[in-house]
Design goal:
Length: about 400
């Protein structure tokens, strides 16, 4: 008889159960930065976010699931497994890491009760990737999948307007489970570039993209691999203007991008360097900026899963403004990220979405000229609070229309 997995939400980054999650997620074939200890560490420090980390436990029990201690080296974990008779890698039936995101509160709404109302009208739950399931029969996987989805909704339903799964791998086999729980499926394209070698990354781009990279460098554009906090501020100002006037989608706060920079710095330092909130697990990221005459004109912010994938999370550039000078900062920033991937032994670059099929989308046109393989793993979404969701849509459109005028 197959027992239903037990769902546990983790609130701490230490302890035997967290160790089990860490080992399970890092070795899973569908592992991504967004379902790993790295994103959990990052999200715990992200000012507008709250991570929701769930694990589905098999029948075995840890000796002391709540015990907390500094993370031991792998050899100590092996010794511990021998001592307890429990293999920490085998107690996990699945894991799911989501994040509740609230848009930064503008200063004029920063007093109670407007602050609470504003946060409530901008909160949403996002799952980048999807549930990670251990090996087993189809029934065992489905049970773990159901329990993780239900556990997530139990934790976030009251705190977010909607829940959205932005799939990074194929979970179409579990569509009926989503449908039974009121989720709707939407096609959504993505693009993944092979960065296993210089030849594949460089020659995979169109001729025009390669010319734009060369011209940008020849005409004075400079690639900044390790930007300063002040340069990050300039990059954020560019992004803020872009998202206000053109994209009209939520943009994280300035602190978010400084946190990504911190991950970029820690990547080159001691891996046990402590961060704020007491977390001793470093996240990993790479922020690359483009400058011209000592002024930031573009950049790209990329979290990464070591030896696996580099992700494009945010990118922008003043391409139109500098086109007459034959400088293309968005193109150069994207190429610099591709270059960083193959130089670091990361075989894939993930563009994190290229829009809805059969709809004109300029961003897709821009990205496709870097080569790569197109996928359509889609997204699953469910509105948790219908009235508030409609009110939030109206409020958001009015607010951003006023900001853009």
């Amino acid at each position: 008889m197959i027992s239903t997995p037990k769902i546990v939400r983790l609130f701490h980054h230490t302890g035997e159960l967290y160790e089990a999650f860490r080992n399970f997620s890092s070795n899973h074939p569908h592992a991504s930065w967004f379902q790993s200890e790295h994103f959990y560490s990052f999200a715990r420090c992200w000012p507008e976010a709250e991570p929701v980390l769930l694990v589905a436990l098999k029948g075995q029990q840890l000796r002391d699931p709540g015990k907390r201690y500094s993370r031991p080296a792998d050899k100590n974990i092996i010794s511990q497994e021998k001592e307890t008779g429990v293999a920490t890698g085998n107690i996990i039936a699945g894991s799911l890491l989501a994040v509740i995101i609230r848009e930064p509160v503008p200063r004029k709404y920063s007093f109670w009760p407007l602050k609470g109302i504003y946060s409530g009208l901008t909160s949403r739950t996002v799952v980048y990737g999807g549930p990670l399931l251990s090996e087993g029969t189809r029934l065992e996987k489905e049970l773990a999948f159901k329990e993780l989805i239900d556990g997530l909704q139990d934790n976030v339903r009251a705190h977010s307007l909607f829940t959205q799964f932005r799939n990074l791998f194929d979970i179409s086999a579990y569509k009926p489970i989503f449908y039974d729980r009121g989720f709707k499926y939407h096609d959504h394209l993505n693009l993944v570039v092979d960065t296993s070698s210089y030849e594949k990354a460089w020659m995979g781009m169109s001729n025009s993209r390669r010319r734009q990279v060369k011209k940008s460098l020849n005409n004075g554009a400079v690639v900044i691999e390790n930007p300063s906090p002040g340069q990050i501020d300039q990059f954020y100002d560019l992004l803020s203007e872009l998202y206000t006037k053109r994209v009209r989608k939520p943009l994280p706060s300035r602190e978010f991008f400084h946190l990504l920079l911190e991950g970029n710095v820690v990547e080159k330092k001691d891996k046990t360097e402590k961060k704020s909130k007491g977390d001793n697990t470093p996240w990993t990221s790479k922020t690359i900026l483009i400058s011209y005459q000592d002024k930031i004109i573009g950049g790209i912010a990329c979290p990464l899963m070591p030896s696996r994938v580099l992700y494009e999370w945010y990118v922008c550039g003043l391409d139109k403004k500098y086109k007459e000078k034959e400088i293309y900062p968005s193109v150069l920033a994207t190429w610099s990220a591709l270059r960083h991937a193959y130089m670091s032994g990361i075989p894939q670059f993930d563009f994190m979405g290229t829009g809805v099929p059969f709809e004109s989308y300029g961003v897709r046109d821009f990205k496709e000229r870097f080569g790569g393989t197109s996928t359509n793993y889609g997204r699953f979404s469910k509105v948790n609070k219908k009235f508030r969701y409609l009110a939030a849509e109206l409020f958001y459109n009015i607010f951003h229309l006023r900001k853009s005028n």
